[in-house]
């Protein structure tokens, strides 16, 4: 194989590994061992067929860095947590954008079913939300306090209870993905139908505008449940569609990736719980500009961090890879 072809074939693997080492990114030990074995194999090949080349010098340097990463204990970077949220996770999550789209479509399909069913059958909302909740809400509406349920309890108690419950739902949406993604689809579908029935119930009672109070915290809450559903689909689909891996290896990788996605949602659930515990109860007295400002900022943060930023970061990384690759590929010699 010509040296240029050899470099072109392996450049992304080498530079990706180099970036991980330079940024002191946390690499799974199994992945690190696999990368190191591949790297040493490439190094041996270059020593045999391209002695004295720039490619050989580059691989020697990279292998040395990898050796230190494996065998020398290094002090962890103080900015490790910052690096994870700023660089590592967004780049990692880019590969699962299509899975996120599937989770969103499943959820929205359920919302539409909930809306249509409630519009055509008044008893449907009781079936989904329960008689107790519907009767309580109707009573609150008659008393002129349709959102009174969000004013009950203490601020801190509501914040903690809501946050813990939301995280529980996210973990459930992820964990049920072990049943070949069917469990996750059920969680997404049931929550979507509940949301559709809830919105339509308020619409039927001519107080749809009051739901803006709910969206103060619900924007993040609902969005992140969909993301947790994405995590469950990642795990479940890894077993159904293992690609070139064995099913066991593919499932282990999918479970780890899904868990990483779930972990990323925890700060957002805490924010949603804080808003519901401390802000939502004052939503009806809040100026509409402030209320809708919180809603749109919440939506923008979610869309930016999970969709726009990973795409931007991926494109920037690709440019960096291409620039480094152009430096590695030997230029043709003029004769």
From TrEMBL:
InterPro entries: SpoIIM-like. It comes from Winogradskyella echinorum. Keywords: Membrane, Transmembrane, Transmembrane helix. The keyword Secreted does not apply. This is Stage II sporulation protein M. The chain crosses the membrane at residues 100-119, 156-178, 185-203, 215-240, 261-283, 289-308. Pfam families: SpoIIM (PF01944). It comes from the Bacteria.
């Amino acid at each position: 194989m010509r040296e240029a072809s050899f470099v072109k074939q392996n450049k992304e693997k080498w530079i990706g590994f180099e970036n991980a080492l330079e940024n002191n990114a946390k690499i799974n030990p199994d992945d690190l061992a696999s990368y190191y074995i591949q790297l040493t194999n490439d190094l041996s090949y270059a020593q045999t067929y391209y002695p004295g080349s720039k490619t050989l010098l580059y691989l020697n340097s990279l292998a040395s860095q990898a050796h230190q990463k494996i065998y020398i204990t290094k002090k962890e970077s103080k900015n490790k947590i910052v690096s994870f949220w700023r660089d590592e996770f967004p780049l990692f999550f880019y590969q699962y954008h299509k899975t996120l789209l599937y989770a969103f479509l499943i959820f929205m399909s359920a919302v539409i079913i909930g809306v249509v069913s409630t519009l055509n059958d008044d008893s449907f909302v009781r079936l989904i939300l329960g008689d107790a909740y519907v009767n309580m809400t109707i009573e609150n509406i008659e008393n002129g306090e349709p959102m009174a349920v969000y004013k009950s309890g203490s601020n801190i108690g509501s914040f903690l209870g809501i946050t813990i419950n939301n995280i529980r739902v996210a973990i459930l949406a992820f964990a049920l993905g072990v049943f070949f993604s069917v469990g996750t689809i059920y969680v997404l579908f049931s929550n979507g139908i509940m949301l559709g029935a809830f919105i339509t119930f308020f619409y039927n009672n001519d107080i749809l505008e009051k739901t803006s109070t709910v969206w103060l915290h619900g924007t993040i809450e609902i969005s992140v449940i969909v993301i947790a559903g994405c995590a469950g689909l990642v795990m479940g689909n890894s077993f159904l569609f293992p690609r070139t891996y064995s099913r066991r290896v593919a499932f282990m990788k999918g479970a780890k990736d899904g868990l990483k996605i779930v972990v990323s949602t925890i700060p957002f659930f805490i924010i949603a719980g804080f808003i519901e515990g401390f802000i939502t109860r004052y939503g009806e007295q809040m100026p509409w500009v402030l209320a809708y400002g919180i809603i749109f900022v919440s939506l923008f943060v979610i869309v930016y961090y999970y969709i726009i930023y990973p795409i931007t970061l991926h494109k920037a990384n690709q440019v960096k890879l291409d620039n480094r690759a152009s430096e590695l590929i030997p230029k043709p010699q003029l004769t």
